[in-house]
Specification:
This protein is α+β, with helices and mostly antiparallel strands.
């Protein structure tokens, strides 16, 4: 899994979110609660898990 660093409310605080997924023909399969869900894009997955 590759970590994704996302800024929180202040510039000095950062939250690390671990994303796991893969691209498919119809979007992005992202791991949520130990099950894969289909998202329109990797960005949609990141929005969902953060």
């Amino acid at each position: 899994m590759l970590p994704s660093i996302q800024k929180t409310k202040t510039d000095s605080e950062q939250e690390v979110i671990f994303m796991k997924g893969y691209h498919v023909e119809s979007g992005y399969m992202g791991l949520v609660d130990e099950e894969y869900m289909l998202f329109a894009s990797e960005e949609d997955y990141l929005d969902y898990v953060s």
